[in-house]
Amino acid sequence: MKNAILTVTLNPSLDKTITLSSFYEGGLNRAVAVRSDAGGKGINVAKVLTLFDAEVVATGVMGEDGSDVILAELQERGLQHDFYMTKGTTRTNYKLLNEATRKVTEINEPGFFVSQEALARVIEKIEKKLPDVAVMVLAGSAARGISDDIYEQLTILAHKHHVKVILDADGDKLKAGLQAEPYAIKPNLRELEGLHGGAFSTDEAMYAFCRSLLNQNTKLVIVSLGKDGAAYITEKEAWRIKLPPANSQSTVGAGDSMVAMTAFSLIKGFPLQALAELASAAGTITATKPGTEVCRPEEVEAYRTQLKAQRLW
Is the confidence at residue 252, as pLDDT, over 80? Predict the structure, then answer.
């Protein structure tokens, strides 16, 4: 039985978190603390899964320049990785944390350009791994040169190898990816409203729309709702998880931790309620961490007992 998880990151980054006591636009700001972490949604997912002793490999594409720090961190974490290296510089993303307001301002560089020849090599590398994979995570943005239908292409390849796909994307990449019917999607409320074409009048209307996205292959819709928790929707069963108050430092990586625990739960064959509790606990704990540091197993289990799980149907 296949138990491996493959995460795909098509626009990795070095995430630099700069903590400020306050922020003055147009003036001088002095940093209280600075930290750098390997970033990119698929890499963040793999970080969590590695801590949970899951069999996971992070793949995708990186620019040859600026990737040394990222690769060194992955090596230090014991995180298995196999990225295609192409010409260009891996981007740096800046997270400005204002301690006075607890708000994070993000500045993301566009990243390197991927040629069609390089992209073909990336897809070839991914497809070679699929026969040994049970779940593939497609998450985040893509480098310049990669079309919006890339997740649709990769999901179609996954179907050929009977691999479940968890899709966590935005905008046109999410819309295109949905056409190939991934096993699960994890939009936040803004992303879900983008698919819907506007805001929902009630929670029940949101749940109904989620249900309309389910089909023969798409079995699970997860909607992350920030401090209001999350909803986990399948055709036969659905759960709403509500969160106790938490001291959030940064929401960066929180959604990735939810995706990681979703993949982990699918591998383990956990029921939907357990999946929902683990995913919500992991996302909340990661939000309390500095930079793009992630949750640890003992923290997730401890916080899970404080969650309120409400069955919707």
Answer: no
